[in-house]
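Bumping with the actual sequence this time:
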Amino acid sequence: MRIRQTLVVTKLLARFFWRRVLSVGILRSRFARFAIGAFALLSILGLTAIATLYLQDLLADIAIVQLIFQFASVSVAFWTIVAFIFVKILFMKSHEFLRLTFQLPITNHERSAAMLLYEMTFASAVALVLFIPVSLAVIIQHGFPALMLVLGGVVFPALTLYPFLALTYNAIFRLAEMLRMVRLSQLIASAIFAVAVFFYNSQTTAIISQMSDDYLSEREAFYPTATYITVLDKFGPLAMMALFLACAAVLVTLALWSAPRVPPIIRQFVKFPLVGFARYRVVAFVAAVARRWELWLAAIITSLFFLSLVTSDSPAQAPFALLILLVQSIYAYVGVAPLRRLAGPRTTAWEEYLLIVSSQLLVLFLLALPVILGSQIAQIPLATIGWALLACVSSVLSATLIGIIFPPEKDNPFTVLVGLGALFAVVGIFSVMVGVLRLPTAATIAILVGAHGMVVAYGVTGIQSLRRKARYEASNGGS
């Protein structure tokens, strides 16, 4: 495999991302891109200021800071595995946009390796962005020593673990290839990693508790997730950096070398029988939502996550595992495009929006029945189940709006990542503002109702705008 050609293809994919994703929906406007960038920057600065203000006394002792980043290394491992699964699901259909490289003088192995490098970049960013505010707050307070702890507890573990996960994934794919199960390789690998992350999550509380006991008892102990911090403490920052460079070089090389020679072709849809009900438009929309292969993979992961939570120390959170299903709502608007074209101008934007949302809710509640039944068996209060279902309805509305503003045409995973990033940023900032302001319950409910009303209104407006754009392009094409 030629490294230079692999890097060229990776650069080409980056250029594709810039031109394709940043010219979709509102991102076509330079002002909108500037506004989103400014909002993201201000959000990070605001969260950093809050962390600095509220954690100033806690972070005054550098020994406490070191313990915190030992805890962080445990969480980073969990979120890196989650980001790996998330990115792999989004990039399942990478062959759709890898076709632009088919005319280049490169091998399939180099093409797959370039895709792996790009996935690593996105997944590492997803895992690391969660720790930016606290990390900046610590660096502001303690300077260079804190920077080394951030590297050893957050950055280096994530950048080392991801190529190891990629190497493991490639080994699973090669095994599936030997067993002539290539089309099922993504499902098998995703299920294995889902089981691994839920098992690891069940152990995190015990690991953190043991770290706390060792700190209070002044005992020395070795924890794999805190390897870099241990090396930093005993041998200094140069030894830690040398260890990271050596591990990263070996793991990245092995991951690139073991990348699939041919990108796996994934089945896009499952058979969804209508049995005489196709004349009902809402049933046709339900079938369009339910036939996506990723939805059923998400349903499997949701079931595993629910079982992990319901058997953990906090089973009351188990119903919220249903939120995993809502990522697919981003594809809802694009997924029903053939039905929208059949309906033509006879359907208003409001009717179309209601059909899209109602079909998703019907599929959601059907898939939620086992979780609801399991929650009842586990004696989880009905109020908790109700709140989980309300959170799902809210997520359907929000994710559908994101799918309208940033339509993921041809299952473009980059657009989905940008859309989800915008959604999580808005929800995170809104949650922090509500928590800081400590508004009365009635005022909070009124704000939430108003916010969801705006989400619905913007969704309908977005459909109307896309319709006008389609008519304009059709008229220009016919002239």
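The tokens above came from a reply further down the thread. The mean pLDDT is 78.
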